[in-house]
Structures are given as structure tokens and as C-alpha cells.
Amino acid sequence: MAQFALITGASKGIGKNIVTELATRKNNVLLVARTEALLQEECRQLRATYGIEAFYLVADLANPAAPQAVYDWCAKNGYQVNILVNNAGYGLSGLFTQYTAQQHADMLQVNITTLVQLTALFLPMLKQQARGYVLNIASSAAYQAVPYLSAYAASKSFVLSFSRGLHYELKKTNVSVTAVSPGATDTDFPNRANVGAKGKKAAEKLNMTPEAVAIQAVNAMYAGKTELITGFVNKLGAALAWLAPKAVAEKIAASIYE
Ligand SMILES: NC(=O)c1ccc[n+]([C@@H]2O[C@H](COP(=O)([O-])OP(=O)(O)OC[C@H]3O[C@@H](n4cnc5c(N)ncnc54)[C@H](OP(=O)(O)O)[C@@H]3O)[C@@H](O)[C@H]2O)c1
Q1: Is the confidence at residue 1, as pLDDT, over 80?
Q2: Which of 5, 162, 239, 251 could form a disulfide with 83 if both were Cys (CB 3.0 to 4.6 A apart)?
């Protein structure tokens, strides 16, 4: 039976580039996101360019019923998933109080709960394959508190900690869990997160391309690494955030996102 890589947030940005990277390596792919037109066109191009199987499911991963719906779609169609990429995610920047409780809950649902539920649902299937992989996309924001991006940064700390813990638990199995933390990457992320002009300007100076991030992420996943921070500058940033007094690291971050 054909095996598939399942990628959430596959319609654009880092997710779309991870899909391309996996397709280049001849993986069949299953794409999940909300924008049907993008997913449809992407599947058409992937089949034509790489001669692989490519299918999509339109799903809003902020919907608590979505993880089960994704799993049922795979089970019903007999898709055997050997790679799960939890990439879908977004931020809400600015004052915590400028967003409603529901807006925060929706973001945490996508960034945390859906990621955990998809992992729980697909792990038994991943274990049935000769080799299984989970790739979770965290962020450089996972390494410190980020004022004015507080809930998002905390959600990515969760992703990192959860992924590391699960990697250890699964050490003696055929499934590896890899957390990849990109820093500023040239995608639609700042617009969706309402990042202000100052934050966008800072990001532009440091931006990596989503293609470069995707290649590093897929390489780390296949190497079975526990954790990877993409790019030298982001590695240095995480090290400095760890070394500096927390109040200093937080003041610098706040000056970017305020
Ligand atoms: N770009 C950065 O600077 C950066 C830095 C660190 C970490 N990251 C992380 O990288 C991951 C990818 O982000 P990106 O930069 O590629 O951003 P992006 O260009 O905005 O792409 C986000 C992807 O997630 C999907 N998505 C968002 N909300 C969704 C929902 N409710 N249901 C289903 N799909 C949803 C989007 O598709 P639809 O809109 O079609 O649903 C899109 O495919 C995220 O986890 C983000 O936190 C990004």
C-alpha cells in the first residue's frame, strides 16, 4: 500500500516548501489547510512535476473536530502515513488584551491542541511503517518569553518541550520526533500575526527563505534529530537569550513587537 507524508499548513510558506522538498524525494503527499484553490493547484503541479500521488483536505485546524476528521479521511481512503508534519500555526502580535479570549483559544487550538491530537491519532499508524517520522514546527520564539507575542511564544515553547519529551519516549521505536525552530522567514506569517512596521523591518534584515528552512527541516527529520534551530543567526540568538538575564532578553524582544 502506498505511503504518504501528511503536512498541515501546506498551502503556502514553510509548509508548501516542505511539501516540495518531500515531493523532490519522491514521497506521496497529503496536504491540509483552509484555502482550497491553493491546495488544488498545488496537487496538480506536484503530480505533473514529480509523478507522485498528491491529495488534499480542506480543514480549519482551529475546529476541535478537525484532527479526527483528518485521521478519518486517511483511514477511509487507505492512506498509510509514514511522515506527519505539524506545520500549521500562526501568531497574534500586539497587546495580549487587544484580542478576545476566543481568538487566543483558536490560535492555541491550531498551534498546540491540534498538533498533539494529530500526533496521538497517527502514532499507531506511524509505528506500523518500516520507519516513521514526526516533524513539528516550533519557532525561535520558543526559547524565551516574547512580550507582545506572549501567547504565541508560549505555544511554541510547548511545541518544543512536547517534541523533545516525545522524542525521548519513542527512542527505542521506529518513530522519531523532530522539532524545528525557524527564526524570521519570508512568508505571510507577519501579516497574519499583525506584526507592526518595526517588527517587519527587523525581520526583513534576518529573513531566511522558506525554501532554505524547508530543506534544513526535512534533512533534520530524516536524520532523526531531536531539535534544530535553522540558520546561524537564529542559533546565536537562542544562545544569547539563554545566557542573558531574562529581563534583558525580554526587553529586546518587546522593543521589536511593541
Ligand atoms: N515565518 C516565520 O517567520 C516563522 C518563524 C518561526 C516559526 N514559524 C512557524 O512556521 C509555521 C508555518 O508558518 P509560515 O511562516 O509558513 O506562515 P504562513 O505563510 O502564514 O503559512 C501558514 C500555513 O498554515 C495554514 N493555516 C493557518 N491557520 C490554519 C488553520 N486554522 N487551519 C488550517 N491551516 C491553517 C495556512 O493555510 P491556510 O491559510 O490556507 O489555511 C498556511 O498553509 C507556523 O507554525 C509558524 O508558527 C514561522
Answers
A1: no
A2: 5
Ligand 1 atom at minimum distance from 106 CA: 31
CA dihedral 75, 81, 84, 85 (to 10 degrees): -90
CATH number at residue 101: 3.40.50.720
Q: Could you tell me the CA-to-CA distances from 222 to 19, 133, 166 in Å, in that order?
A: 14, 8, 17
pTM for the whole structure: 0.98
Range of the domain at 104: 3-257
110 lines ligand 1 (CB under 6 A): yes
Q: If you measure from the C-alpha of residue 13 to the centroid of ligand 1, how many angstroms do you get, rounded to a whole number?
A: 7
User: Ligand 1 atom closest to Cα of 38?
Assistant: 40
Task: Determine contact, residues 208/185, Cβ cutoff 8 Å.
Answer: yes
Q: What whole-number percentage of the chain has pLDDT above 90? A: 94
How many independent structural domains does the chain possess? 1
